[in-house]
Amino acid sequence: MHSGSTPAIEARGLAAGYGRVPVLRDINLAVRPGEVVALLGPNGAGKTTLLRTLAGYRRPTSGEVRLFGEPCNRVPVHRRCRQGVSFMGEERHIFPGLTVRQSLRLVRGGPESIELFPALARRSRHRAALLSGGEQQMLALALALARAPRLLLIDELSLGLAPLVRERLLDTVRATADRGVAVLVVEQNARAVLSRADRAYVMRRGEIVDEGTASRWLADLDGLAARYLS
Ligand SMILES: Nc1ncnc2c1ncn2[C@@H]1O[C@H](COP(=O)(O)OP(=O)(O)OP(=O)(O)O)[C@@H](O)[C@H]1O
């Protein structure tokens, strides 16, 4: 962990919602370069809303988001993207009509992009639309990484995917952070994500109700589930 460095992203007293309906309240968090930080919480806790607000798709109603040390509440998504923010939402951002190889070429991904996932390399001439869900998510991650992000915001990394695919995706996420990228990731399987994460925040009803090191949570997974995730 790089506790001394400027956070890639930071929220201070952040609130956001939909129309007049408040969802997020007083969110304080920071993710530093080199860290994998897990965002845990039951359905409806506000994880997606938080990621989308951090990515710039929703404007905070109060509080502040700082990107690489600079206030960014009014910075639009495309400028955040240019600064190195990559957002992987629940819907997979792939190009259905292109093959794996064409997709990676489009985002100027080098050969290493495809080598990330051997399963994908074997499918390089297949159209993305015809890949399995797991292969599509590998492609979405490879496309996100090909843009050399400095901050990755990932929602529901492995929803509906096989355990082996989940492990492969999470290993890649960990390796990405080890190269200096900051990662904030929502993942249903707490054990799987915590075993690669540095820290975790737990959300409930729009608030961060707890936080700690991944090793602390891993040592008490049952307590975590009983207190917060059920
Ligand atoms: N487009 C929307 N309009 C109005 N309310 C919304 C909208 N999207 C989400 N909400 C509400 O915001 C709250 C938080 O939802 P959000 O999707 O952020 O939670 P989540 O933790 O990501 O849950 P899940 O794991 O089910 O995706 C919920 O009460 C939800 O009903």
From TrEMBL:
Keyword Chaperone assigned: no
Q: Return the similarity comment.
A: Belongs to the ABC transporter superfamily.
Q: Which GO terms describe its biological process?
A: L-amino acid transport
Q: Which GO terms describe its molecular function?
A: ATP binding; ATP hydrolysis activity; branched-chain amino acid transmembrane transporter activity
Put simply, this protein is called ABC transporter ATP-binding protein
Please tell me whether the keyword Protein biosynthesis is annotated for this protein. Answer: no
Record-linked SMART domains: AAA
Organism of this sequence: Parafrankia colletiae
Family matches, as Pfam families: ABC_tran
**Keywords attached to this entry:** Amino-acid transport, ATP-binding, Nucleotide-binding, Transport
Q: Indicate the segments forming the ABC transporter domain, all copies.
A: 9-230
